């Protein structure tokens, strides 16, 4: 089986460097920019921009390298052809699946020229950026673009969750708050949200706040560059919040909801008492009952 696609030949240098680092042997047959081979997979980039991949190990190569690193990069490499350059607000959140730490919601505004600038500063899906990279790019975004970030530390988060009795309604309220704030700052009435619930949930929250704008909600919304920028700001706010809590209580609070989280939770309770858990953790999580 052979996979074939077209890519921007400007990506040839990146692809060549990455494949060399991965141990591929590179040659240059006629009409190619290069051909790369290693056990189980071969990859050839032609002068026309056609890229072919084949071999028994093609699937993991595609899944773990080519799709996230090259094909998505290609998606972002021609803004006029592949990106929505309409001025709009992008929104996303971070921390909703983490037992410890805050829930963070971010909104970012960019016009067409701003979206092109996002390409230059390295904005992409936050899941493909290291924590260190997130913090660096977030600073650039804040320096260049209008934004709003809402960070709900556990005490406030738990209070609001008790009020809304539902995470999606809490998220909708927070998104509507951030969106209303940034829309008022910029005058922008176009927004795109990384969809997390039925569309009416956020729409109702906007109506309650009497916010009128054109909101689109899209699964995998982070494929939009402005939503990706919002995702980076939300993630940065979460990381900074986790660092702040870890320093305040002089212990490492791990991300996620793994067995390490349970161990850390038990240590926290032993040191500060169960009544203090709500200061660092989302207490409606099942994890809280396992401590």
CATH superfamily of the largest domain: Ribonuclease H-like superfamily/Ribonuclease H
Q: What's the story with the biggest beta sheet?
A: 5 strands, antiparallel
Q: Whole-number radius of gyration?
A: 22 Å
What is the domain total for the residues? Answer: 3
Which CATH top level class of the largest domain fits?
Alpha Beta
Question: Which architecture of the largest domain would the CATH scheme give at its second level?
Answer: 2-Layer Sandwich
Give your account of this protein's structure.
With 291 residues, the chain is an alpha+beta fold. Helix content is 47%, strand content 20%. Strands 1-5-4-3-2 form a 5-stranded antiparallel beta sheet, with helices on one face. A 5-stranded mixed beta sheet has the order 8-7-6-9-10, sandwiched between helices. Helix 5 (131-144) packs across helix 9 (225-249) and helix 7 packs across helix 8 (199-208). It starts with a strand and ends in a 19-residue tail after the last helix.
Which descriptors would you attach to this protein?
Nucleotidyltransferase, domain 5; TATA-Binding Protein; 10 strands; 5-stranded antiparallel sheet
């Amino acid at each position: 089986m052979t996979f074939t696609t077209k890519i921007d030949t400007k990506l040839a240098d990146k692809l060549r460097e990455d494949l060399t680092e991965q141990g591929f042997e590179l040659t240059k047959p006629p009409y190619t920019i290069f051909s790369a081979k290693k056990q189980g997979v071969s990859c050839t980039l032609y002068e026309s921009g056609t890229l072919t991949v084949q071999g028994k190990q093609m699937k993991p190569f595609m899944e773990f390298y080519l799709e996230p690193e090259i094909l998505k990069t290609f998606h972002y490499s021609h803004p006029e052809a592949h990106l929505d350059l309409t001025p709009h607000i992008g929104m996303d959140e971070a921390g909703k699946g983490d037992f410890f730490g805050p829930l963070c919601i971010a909104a970012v505004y960019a016009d067409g020229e701003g979206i092109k600038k996002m390409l230059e500063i390295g904005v992409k899906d936050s899941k493909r950026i290291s924590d260190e990279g997130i913090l660096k790019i977030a600073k650039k975004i804040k320096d260049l673009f209008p934004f709003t970030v809402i960070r709900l530390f556990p005490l406030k988060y738990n209070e609001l969750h008790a009020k809304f009795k539902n995470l999606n309604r809490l998220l909708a309220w927070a998104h509507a708050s951030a969106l209303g704030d940034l829309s008022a700052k910029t005058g922008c009435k176009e927004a795109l949200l990384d969809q997390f619930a039925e569309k009416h949930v956020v729409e109702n929250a906007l109506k309650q706040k009497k916010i009128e704008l054109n909101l689109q909600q899209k699964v995998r919304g982070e494929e939009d560059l402005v939503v990706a920028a919002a995702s980076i700001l939300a993630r940065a706010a979460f990381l900074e919040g986790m660092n702040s809590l870890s320093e305040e209580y002089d212990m490492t609070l791990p991300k996620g909801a793994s067995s390490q989280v349970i161990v850390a939770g038990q240590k926290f309770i032993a040191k500060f008492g169960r009544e203090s858990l709500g200061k660092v953790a989302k207490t409606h999580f099942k994890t809280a009952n396992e401590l």
